[in-house]
Amino acid sequence: MSGAGQMHTTTAASSRKPAGPTAFINARLVDPETNRDEPGGLYVKDGIIADLGASLRRNAPEGATVVDCKGRMLCPGLIDAQVFTGEPGYEHRETLKTASHSAAAGGVTTMIVMPDTDPVIDQVSLVDFIQRRARDNAIVHVHTMAAVTKGLKGEEMTEIGLLKRAGAVAFSNGKMSVANTRVMKNALLYGRDFGALIVHHTEDPYLAGSGAMNSGEVATRLGLPGVPKMAEIITIERDVRLVEMTGGRYHAATISCPESLAIIRQAKARGLNVTCGVSINHLTLNENDIGSYRTFLKVRPPLRNESDRAAMVAAVANGEIDTIVSSHDPQDADVKRRPFAEAADGAAGLETLLAAALRLHHSGDVALPTLLRPLTFNPAKLFGLPGGRLRKGAPADLILVDLDEPWVVNKDHLRSRSKNSPFDEAKMQGRVLRTLVDGETVFEFAAGR
Amino acid sequence: MAISAQKQSKSFTHRHLLSTEKLTVPEIEFLLDLADKNADSPPQAEKKRQVLRGRTHINLFFESSTRTQASFELAAKRLGADVMNMNVAASSVTKGETLIDTAITLNAMRPDIIVVRHHAAGAVELLSQKVDCSVINAGDGAHQHPTQALLDALTIRRAKGRIAGLSVAICGDILHSRVARSNIDVLNTMGARVRVIAPSTLLPAKPERLGVEVFTDMWKGIEGADVVMMLRLQRERMESSYVPSVREYFHFFGLDHEKLARAKPDALVMHPGPMNRGVEIASTIADDPRSVIREQVEMGVAVRMAVLEALAMNLPKSEAAKS
Q1: What is this structure's pTM?
Q2: Which of A151, A200, A421, B95 has the fewest CB atoms within 10 Å, measured from its CB?
Q3: What is the tens place of the pLDDT at every residue in B74-104?
């Protein structure tokens, strides 16, 4: 995979206090890059991982602050490759700052934010704006995707070369698919010259129409217009052909059914530069959870049926899913407390991403390093970021996790400015105890919260 | 006179000049030698005025052009031809006449030479099949523009003393460029090494099959070039999503001092015109001593005179010439 060009690591809030060398001893080290899962210790100095391994399990280097992990998991912080915030334009829903606090509490140390803002992130000055606001206000790393078409209108492509130079890690049309095949082709082709990754929301807008949920029995019973899976399948099929034609780099942002996966699998087998992601919602929820018109479960792509969900989980287990994202999409009550078909799409998810993902571990479906890979190392590789791995010299973006602690989600306790969590009142097992970004502790769980 | 005509006609025996694709080295050299002489002799040289005396030369431009049409008109007039410019926009074409009917109508007027520019590739060849006179292609769609390639070759040869072995980088909208296609033919035939540089969206399919090296990174493509030939970028390309903006295009594919520094220090800078300063070429480079853009225009007349002379040698004797 060709890495991104130059990397602009947006350092999280400058207000963080510098920490001295810290030794994490007696930890369960889990590293998805190397498949490591063993007892050991890890030594952080100057914001980077200075050393790690079994030999450090009991022995802290001289002068280091010692943290006894008590056998709990120490792993790379999550890299969430699809986060919508409201900044700029919809700050009442979420700012980079509030999203970053939500991220830190959820074990996410890097957020990749989407260009669906007002104004749309389609110019160099707006990439600069995000980077500056993140540097000044966010407590985790923030990178931005830039719009692939001007104003996300799907008509004219943006200045991909200059935007990439400014630090955009990928190009996306946000929540909109690029319906115009020629525009999509040109974006892939032009982007290829710059090594640009095109991340696409794959839903044919004409087929999806005004659909409110997955097309099928549940939609029929609820009397809601459906979005057929074919809207996704056809778009991915088309896009893969365009990648074949252009040699571009392509990532299907969030797939939701095994038919889509089959297309991606074949494309990979043919050597195409194609990857795919799935949202945590599609791994842990299905259309039945909508129950009696619960709008917090109205998302795009829509939640599919149980066998689709199970197929997505199986794909995570066998490593076919490249990224798992929260698809964090804060929406306020005004746009959610409406009749289902009229309610806004989107679910908040940063803070529950890891806990929800751990359901797959606890159910025995997915081994830990395999589960963490699409949440850490894979997105790092895909977007050309230095984190997402336990390696000497890597940034000390780390999380300490109690894999077993039970808790119940209470949306009012979530740090996100919007409370539209589909997991409200859900039982979780596994909790982030401490989050470090560049070696600094940005979150520590305080019992009683 | 008869002997020299016979000797020369061995070198260029075609009735038309439609394409550069099949031109041979002797043919190209013959035309360039002839053009060289034209370029070196004062424009009012008396004997030149006789070559096309009594001949009717029609400029038939379906696409508007200032410099090419003027250049042909001047060349023909210097050779003594009667020149008629057909204003196609105001002609029967806009009344719905087909290209072939236009050709048949014009043919009935018994011209000797027709110079045609048309927006559709292949249109000039189609027209040439329906007339009895000589036809010169002054540009057909994105296909061919033979006299431009010849004048470029002449400009290079006069500045560098040779064409063979030179590295020529053609940069810009290769996809839509007839200038690029004709130049690739002529330069390759004459032994130059040709590179094309463009964003992938402005490259045609399989460009390497034209015998060129392909670059999408201008900094690399221009490295060590003897000649840098810039192409015009039309504004409509921006609206059709070929390139995102003028700013980005100039940044990555415009010729500025930084990129030109990668070429040989004595590299020639060429442009077929009309230039978009600040889009494909920095203004200061257009006016730089390395720029031969003005010479290209000058060579345009010399080359077109040479082509007209060469074709005239193969024309049946006219009434005027017999008398």
Answers
A1: 0.90
A2: B95
A3: 999 999 999 999 877 656 566 677 888 888 9
Using a CB–CB cutoff of 8 Å, tell me whether A190 touches chain B.
yes
A160 vs B: CB within 8 A: yes
Q: Scanning every residue of chain A, which has its alpha carbon at the shortest distance from the alpha carbon of B241?
A: A156
Which pLDDT belongs to residue B43? 63
Length of chain A: 449
C-alpha separations of A133 from A106, A116, A126, A136 in Å: 21, 16, 10, 5
Residue at token pair 């929820």: A285
A-chain residue closest to B199, CA distance: A190
Across A22-159, the runs of DSSP E, i.e. the strands, are: 22-31, 36-45, 48-53, 65-68, 73-76, 78-83, 108-113, 141-147
Q: A102 with A350: CB under 8 angstroms? A: yes
Rounded Cα–Cα distance for residues B168 and B170 (Å): 6
Convert the pLDDT of each residue in A329-386 to its tens digit: 999 989 999 999 999 999 999 999 999 999 999 999 999 999 999 999 999 999 999 9
pLDDT tens string A302-314: 999 999 999 999 9
In chain B, which residues have their Cβ closer than 8 Å to the Cβ of A193?
A: 199-200, 216-217
Chosen for mutation from A165, A190, A194 (greatest number of chain B CBs closer than 10 Å) is A190
